[in-house]
Structures are given as structure tokens and as C-alpha cells.
Amino acid sequence: MDDIMSTPPRSRTVLRVGPLKDSLERTLAEDYGAYVLPSEPAEREAFLASHGAEITAAVTSGRTGVDAALLSALPNLGAIVNFGVGYDTTDVDAAAARGVGVSNTPDVLTDCVADTAVGLLIDVMRGFSAADRYVRAGRWVTDGDYPLTHRVSGRRVGIIGLGRIGSAIAKRLNAFGCVISYHNRHRKPDAPYEYAESPVELARGVDVLVIAAAGGSGTEHLVDADVIAALGPSGYLVNIARGSVVDQAALIDALSDGRLAGAGLDVFADEPHVPAELIAMDHVVLLPHVGSATVETRAAMEELTLRNLDEFLATGRLVTPVVPPGSP
Question: Where in the chain is the domain with CATH 3.40.50.720?
Fold first, then answer.
């Protein structure tokens, strides 16, 4: 309650929704006098009844977002400033219908997320994490050499979602001599890669399928059992997008039955909860959603988040709008 009742350093119009980077939380509290939305339902309801009409800007992240119910409790909200490139947890359609702007932090995290995708691909195909566990368990001494794995160079790689991040992944894999193809909502005329009309068609012709599509209802389970079956028992899947894009149950079934060779996953359906079946698999590499989690990238994301907030508070506009304010 101290966050709500203390005297702010300036007019209090900013609301923090969900946890953010520690330094960003401090800046919002100290420099903007930001309210913090309570997490407990009764406290949240009381807070919104008392202060909802004061809020003109909300700062959140792709892991929390602003849904339609919260939007309706903030009648004077003008902008949702998102820390991160993904914004599928925010009801963008409801925001746009109200004329509420939405921003994100594109470009600044592209390189690190692309690096993560390539790292996962190499790790799962070469078995480096599993080999590390093999050495630490003393099995090199007791069981002999680690089993042979598969080469990365020259493999056929399909990318679902050839946006900024997907293109950066393709650029990196070109250096490995990989043959790139892709599926997108629309063909990209300037892309020097073969286009597949569907995820199934793409999966059928590649050794590795990399998921770099945006999250949200439009891509939920875009990679389903049929796509996984088309990838086949010698195929690998890498997901650095959103857990919702892949049918996680179908993925687990295929990995369990030997109908997929392996997977590298940075995202999951119900984070931070990872199914025990995946944890038990030695041919799966698991990361705790750290694609952009470097000191340099998170600092750049924080800076761009604050630039968006400052621009909105000063001019009513956003620096990197997904939805411009005032444009239903």
C-alpha cells in the first residue's frame, strides 16, 4: 500500500502493470510517481475504483499486458507502453477501438533473440548441453565416448515468421551455409529465400524448423500436430517466439514417441511452468525465456520504453507505436 499512498514527485498519471526490470521499476516510482497495480483481486478492484480515472499511461510487458477488463477500468487511458517487442498479452484490438495507443521496443532486441535461436539450434543438434551433463555425471569415464550427433552446417532450415528477428536468424544461418526457406502471412518480394505456402509445406522440406512468428490468437497452435509430423523423426524444432504458437501437447507426444529428433525451446505455453515430460528429455534444450536477456539489450529496451513514455506524456504521441494514440 505504500506505493499507492506515498506523495509522488509529479502529477501521478502513470500505472505500472506487472513486474518489470528492477531499474525501470525504480525510475517509474522515483521519476514518474507511478502507481503500481495491486496483484491481489480485492486490492486491485479497490485501487481501480479510487484511482482508475487518473491514469493516462500504463507501462507493462509482454508477460503481463493490459487486457480488455483492465482497459475498461481506466477510462482516461491514452497509451500502453510495452517493455518488450511482444505485445500479445495486451488486447490491442480493444485498445485501438478506444483510441488508446500501444508501443513496443522493436529492433533493440533483434540481435540477441536471433543469437539465442542459433544457439539453441546448434545446442540441440550437436547435443552440447546433454554432453556437458554426460561429463559432469562421470559417464565419460564409465561409459566411454559420447554418442555421435548431427552437423549444423549446410542443413535446410525453415523459418516461420520472416520479420526483423526471423530475417536476423536467416542472416546468421547463411554463414553456416544453411539453405533457408520461410513461411509468412505474406510472401516478401525482397526476401532471397524460397517461400512455402503453409507451415506444413515448409516443415516437409527442411531439417530444422525455427519459430519466429508473433504470438496472439492469430498464430495460436500455428505449429500443430500436422506440422510436427511433416517435420518428421529426423527433424528439429526451435522456438524463440511464443509458447502459444506451438501445440505443446503435440510436441511432447512427438518427442516422446521418437517422431521428432529434438527441440530447443526458450518459450512455453504456461510460463514459468515447464511440463515434467520436457524436463525429463535429454534431447530437448530448455531455456527460461532469456532470448533478449542480456545487460546491453535490456538497457536498450528500458531506454526505448522511457522514450515512448516521455513522448506520450509530452506530446500525446509514441516513438515506436504498434497502434498510434487516438486512431481507432
Answer: 13-107+296-323, 110-286
Instruction: Report, as an integer, the average pLDDT of 24-50.
Output: 97
Which residue among 289, 298, 302, 311 is the active-site one?
Answer: 289
Q: Which of 30, 43, 45, 271 is catalytic?
A: 271
CATH number of 110-286: 3.40.50.720
Per residue in 67-80, pLDDT (tens digit) is 999 999 999 999 99
At 118, list the grid cell.
542459433
Q: Answer yes or no: 164 catalytic.
A: no
**Contact (Cβ atoms closer than 8 angstroms) between residue 61 and residue 35:** no
User: pLDDT of 226-270, one tens digit each?
Assistant: 999 999 999 999 999 999 999 999 999 999 999 999 999 999 999
The verdict on whether 54 is a catalytic residue reads no
Q: How far apart are CA 220 and CA 163, in angstroms?
A: 18
Residue in 155, 242, 302, 311 annotated catalytic: 242
Distance of CA 313 to CAs 27, 254, 287, Å?
15, 50, 37
Superfamily (CATH H level) for 13-107+296-323 = NAD(P)-binding Rossmann-like Domain (3.40.50.720)
242 is catalytic: yes
Write down the pLDDT at residue 328.
Answer: 61
